[in-house]
Amino acid sequence: MTFQSSLFHFERNLSELTEAEREVYEAVEQDGIGPREYARKTGRSPGTVGNLLARARQKVGGEAGA
């Protein structure tokens, strides 16, 4: 589900995400940080970040793989 705040801007509804999924999604999808870079910054394994990102993308209707 998306919310439209203006004619050209859509915001994704992140309310269904867990805190960890939201943090990863925002960092990668909105802030443009790479998944491996985010993993290094947070001390998580790249696999964990990838799994969180995939679940988050699926929940907000985005691509499951990337």
Largest beta-sheet characterization: 2 strands, antiparallel
Q: Total number of β-strand segments?
A: 2
Note poorly predicted spans.
none
Overall pLDDT confidence: 84
- Which structural class matches the secondary elements? mainly alpha
Helix content: 40-55%
Order of helices and strands: EEHHH
Strand content: 5-15%
How far the N terminus sits from the C terminus, by CA atoms, comes to 20 Å
Name the overall outline. globular
Indicate the radius of gyration in whole angstroms: 12 Å
Pfam families: Sigma70_r4_2
Protein name: RNA polymerase sigma factor
InterPro entries: RNA_pol_sigma70_r4_t2 (IPR013249), RNA_pol_sigma_r3/r4-like (IPR013324), WH-like_DNA-bd_sf (IPR036388)
Description of the molecule:
This protein has 66 residues and is mainly alpha-helical. 52% of the residues lie in helices and 9% in strands. The protein has helices at 19-30, 35-42, 46-59, and strands at residues 2-4, 10-12. Strands 1-2 form a two-stranded antiparallel sheet.
Q: What does the secondary structure layout of this molecule look like, with pairings?
A:
Blueprint: E1 2-4, E2 10-12, H1 19-30, H2 35-42, H3 46-59
Antiparallel strand pairs: 1-2
Helix pairs in contact: 1-3, 2-3
Index terms:
66 residues, mainly alpha, two-stranded antiparallel ribbon, 2 strands, 9% strand, globular
Summarize the model shown.
InterPro entries: RNA_pol_sigma70_r4_t2, RNA_pol_sigma_r3/r4-like, WH-like_DNA-bd_sf. The chain is mostly helical and 66 residues long. The chain is 52% helix and 9% strand.
